[in-house]
Amino acid sequence: MELSRRELLTRTSQAAAVATAASTLTIGGAAQAESGERVKLTQGTNISVSRSRDGKWLAIDLVTAIWVLPAGGGVARKLTDELQDATLPSFGPGGRIVFQSYRDGNFHLHVIERDGSGLRQLTSGKYDHREPAFSPDGELIAFVSDRAGSYGVHVLEVATGEITQLTGVPDEAAAPQWSADGTRVIFTVGNASVDTVTLDGVRERLVTAPAGTQVFGAAFGPGGQPSYTRMRPGLAELVLGTTAVVSGEDVFGFAPIWSDGSVLYTADGRIRSRDENGVVKDVPFEATVPVRTRRRPHRTRNLTGGPVKGIASPVVSGDGKIAFRALNALYVLSGGKATKLTDGRYFDSDPDFSPDGRKIVYASDRSGVAQLWVRDLETDEDELYAPAPHAQITPRFSPDGTKVAYLDQDGQVWITDRQARRQVTPTLFQPGRPTWSKDGNTVALAAVKPFSRRFREGTSQILNVDLVGGELKYTEPLPFRSIATRGDDGPVWSPDGTKIAFVVESVAWVVPVDGKGVFQGEPRKVTNEVTDSLAWHGNDSLVYLNNGRIRKSTLDGRVTTIRHGLTWRKPKAPERKVIHVGAYWDGEAHELKRDVDIVVEGGSVKEVRPHRGRADVDASHLTAIPGLIDAHNHWHLRGRQWGARQGNVWLAYGITTVRSPGDPVYQMVETREALAAGTLTGPRFYATGEAVDGSRVYYNFMRPTLSKAQLDLELRRAHELGYDMIKTYVRLPVELQRAAVQRSRVPLSSHYHYPAANLGMDGQEHVGATNRLGYSHTITRQGKAYQDVVAIFTASGMSMTPTLFQSRALYDNDKSLATDERTRVLYPPWEYERNLADANAQGTPAGTSSRAVLRGWVEFALKVHRGGGFVITGTDAPLDSPATATHQNLRALVEYGFTPREALITATRNPAKWLGLPLGAIKPGAPADIAFVEGNPLADIKAAANVKQVMVAGRLHSVPELLEPYQQSQVLTTSAALDPLPSAENKHWWHEPEWAERVCCDH
């Protein structure tokens, strides 16, 4: 790949020793709350250990800081502050310690003296430098970096800062360690093998992991034998040569330290030594950290009406009309008046004008799954455009109006001319909406390009598809920068084909291009305010969304607001109803109460009384329980593919409230308003927009945020659009996470446990989430957590949302949720087929879930729950299955220790408390959100899924009513499929569908 001079200047900064001042944020410093306490830690989850050369001291990484303690154990002393985000220490001669730090938003190597002095940064730049290890003589540091296109082993000369690469593409190397004589480095490759390399680059493979296992933490043992941790679910072994010397322990998988026949390692939350006779001894330690115990007041509110802010995917016609989705309908705005085009219970989205402005193409699921429809704006007639056996979403007319480009549910780009369709890209991971060159020979869209296989994050770039030559070409919008989101933030080609617009760091940029989309100059910033969802208005102006407003800006910066006049209001509550139930659980009691009437008035519970007289609804054979709350899902991760089915499936399984900690913002706001206005059927919906991320991203709905100035833009959007919470994501540095806490007006959550518990974060998502480290400090690879994690959770009051992906393992002996009629009818066909196949695979060698890991996760959650902590149920749907996964999570909690009542509380009272709303209960004054089920869920948790009717805010739905719209999908005669273009051949490893990444705790 040839680089421009600009790129070379940006990318070729030399590694240098850069002095950094220690932060003032230390124990007892600025981040500690007025209402806080100090928590004593005596165990560590996924900690590593290093021993000083004189054998007197140990260094460990506990809660993302470096600590030292005497080799025999004792009180640990903290060397690094919270902003340093420091891990993986390695002692060198003279007591110096090298470690990796994420302080500036990339991993870099730092050194510090054992007494805490002399902190110095050794590497810099936009690539990551990880997992350092001092050579025996202290003159070199081995580490891995993605600076060469994948993770390779590098060596840094401490005196000069010069870096030498030892291995490179296509390696995904990890955790190098030195031989005793300093001539070789041992490391793992892709968790599948153990290799060595000499300083002159000679490679040797020592170990290949057996099928079904992974290897971590390689080191040289006695006699130069390889030593490493070998893992599979339920088993972690420390191996020397070919012999497992430690088994039956939760070995953490970091490099052990061998001395003759004895070994020092970490396992079971402890630092542990084992001598040559097999005698095991723990090295005790004690460390104290501050936590904030007062969480911010929750500000979630029920929307009641007002100006419409949920304007989704606006586009502009040649004569200046604007089309968009709002309140579950399509509108055209012209002359200051918005005219509704569609109105119904289905999902109509993503309109685009024909070149002559007389027609609109859009996606609708009215035939059962999302397909392309065309509306004639003069006759108001609709017709199917070019039916296909897959979903058809985000369509875009070609400049001559003869073809449409669209995406399917797997992220493949197709082009159709009504008679036939042709695939033009391979499967892409959550790409953006296509845009056409003026001559129709190139299609461009946003697509992610990772830095390496080992860590999935990358930058969202412009992908040009040459429809004539059949080639794909990635282009960074700016060096090391991402298009803001891979949705409606560009690229968008100007009508005359000479410019492309896109959003970077939440403002608009325009760049001159040739006919194939190749940049012909430098991008120029054209807006200074929050800018989303770009569309061209002629060739000299852009229309975009600014915190719920439609704005227009000329390329020289003159901005006006385009009024649409749309408002909405909450519908009138249903009439008073008396419901006779055979039994009910109020959300607190230990036993059901029998034969009562629930009186509902004004959308709330007016009274619960002994049954008398005639009731409006006879549910005497059913049990009423509070509607369930799923506190972690992402409505629009596959929202266009699911369409209006999604609201129905949540209700059909008794889930009356959902909380999304991350969604494309305007899709989210539009759906939230539509549900609140009653124009879309579904549960209550509380949510945030895109998660605030760092310099690298993965999912299409993450906001790459690189500065406090940009963070202010992100928080302004959150405030003006009324986010119910904010989520900070994997690559956001601690300093910006702290700034988000200080500047936010709503609760915050993330994937991180500490220092989040001291910064003032309100919750952690997942038991152990996707993490920039590649592993978690809250849960081990075997699914276990130790005293440090539990103590911080219970002391701080932070919520934990387990998202028990491994609960799918329970399908090994009960597949009823996967085969249920509600699942079969309300899941899109491809989702149902994948879900059923996965359920059928559990308990077989093809199964992807583990009961052993699941048990550890639930036991962790149970310790937090019974220790006074705050556990709330969530699933990460649709990465796990919407609605059915909520019940599978509850069943897993009961399977491994929770009582049914305790499990139900995590899906009712607790998430209601997090939201700050009087949900999760059946009592006078509470909203009438009720599931009517067969059986007694307090005796058998499976009964909670036996939903026959469900009520939200007093509005009653039967399950047959929810199934009816999709009970009989139309059988369509599909258009012909032509041979794919050469550009559709998959030549890149990262081209895969979003659903293929079925791993725990993605977001």
From TrEMBL:
It holds the Pfam family PD40. Gene3D superfamilies: Amidohydrolase (3.40.50.10910), TolB, C-terminal domain (2.120.10.30), Urease, subunit C, domain 1 (2.30.40.10). SUPFAM superfamilies: Composite domain of metallo-dependent hydrolases, DPP6 N-terminal domain-like, Metallo-dependent hydrolases, Tricorn protease N-terminal domain. Residues 624-956 form the Amidohydrolase-related domain. It comes from the Bacteria. InterPro entries: 6-blade_b-propeller_TolB-like, Amidohydro-rel, Metal-dep_hydrolase_composite, Metal_Hydrolase, Metallo-dep_Hydrolase, TAT_signal, WD40. Coiled coil: none annotated. This is Amidohydrolase. It comes from Lentzea cavernae.
